Amino acid sequence: MKVRAAVLERTGASLEVVSLDLAPPGPAEVLVRLEASGVCHSDFNAVDGTAETRCPAVLGHEGAGVVEAIGPGVTRVVVGDHVALSWAPSCGMCGECLRDLPQLCSTAWPAMETGGLMDGTTRLSRDGEPVFHYSFLSTFAEACVVPEKSCVPIPKDVPFDVAGLVGCAVTTGVGAVWRTAGVRPGDRVAIIGCGGVGLSALMAALAVGAEPVIAVDAAPAKLETARSFGASEGVLWAGSAEATAEAIREVSGGGVDYAIEATGRPEAMAAAFLATRARGAAVLIGIPRADATLTLPALSIPRMERRVLGSIYGSSRPERDFGTTLALYRSGRLPLDRLVSHRLSLDEVGRGFELMRSGDALRVVLDLNT
Ligand SMILES: [Zn+2]
Ligand SMILES: [Zn+2]
What we know:
Layout lengths: L1 E7 L7 E7 L6 E11 L1 H8 L8 E2 L4 E8 L11 E4 L9 H4 L9 H6 L10 E3 L2 E3 L11 E5 L3 E3 L6 H7 L2 H13 L7 E4 L3 H12 L5 E5 L2 H10 L3 E4 L4 H12 L3 E6 L4 H9 L1 E9 L15 H5 L2 E4 L7 H13 L9 E6 L3 H10 L4 E5 L3
Parallel strand pairs: 11-12, 11-14, 12-13, 14-15, 15-16, 17-18
Antiparallel strand pairs: 1-2, 1-4, 2-7, 3-5, 3-9, 3-18, 5-6, 6-10, 7-8
Helix pairs in contact: 5-6, 8-9
The chain binds zinc ion (2 copies).
The site of one zinc ion has 6 residues, from loops.
């Protein structure tokens, strides 16, 4: 079939919406008609070369839609199911999966880097030449063929834009709080970086009864937004890791149990660490450049039992956690729809990147059913 899709021809180019060929789903694969896709910073990392990506590629990895066809052997979904898409389709059999770490699956990550699906081949092409997938999904398109394990069925009353965000930003933020950190009622939490991921972490911390929940950002407007989501305090970035950490320590009563870092900047990561109290942990979710390094005061690690926890995809198990998150959304305890600040068409994807980079958007969602 033919699909319209936003293609990155090479690093540094702008996305172009073109018509491509999409092959039918193979064994353990599913054809999904896409309804919505969030625009994520990771997509932009592929555009500007922060993360090396095989091109030409259809970007987008934060989507939801309706199952239109299934390949041989598919058992998890049927035609007509509404699905949120996971970019971490774990194999269930490798050493990491057996250690209950599906987010680190040692089969899926190398396969993702090929730009193909799990078998390393693509379903997208143009004039017989392969066009690569991005994170198994390629959701900046009218439809996509994805691994069966990327498909998580969702209730039919969940809006597709919310379901799409649960596929990346929301799960990254919420999971960091609930799964990686395991925040408990009364824990003091700071969120550094109040974009879509940080606000998701903030909502998750509030939902489990963390107190206080301190928002930290370099933009006053983002702090205002965080307060409107329920943050108890706002701390403006103070120009250095030390000064910012000091401000967080002051408003938290001596340091936080968990400082969630969602910017990927080493100075913000250092601030997160320095803002922790004894036995506290910096939880690092922002993706830094590949060559970035982090310097920390070593003595306080044994002396105060301070910790650094890495978190990818919120240490989540999508087939379990998407449902939990959406159940709390439906009951009103996670107001995820408030993250959607802009709705654009596929043709406006370039404007979506501009809005994201300007800081004017919480989350831009492409409406793909137009
Ligand atoms: Zn993402
Ligand atoms: Zn695995």
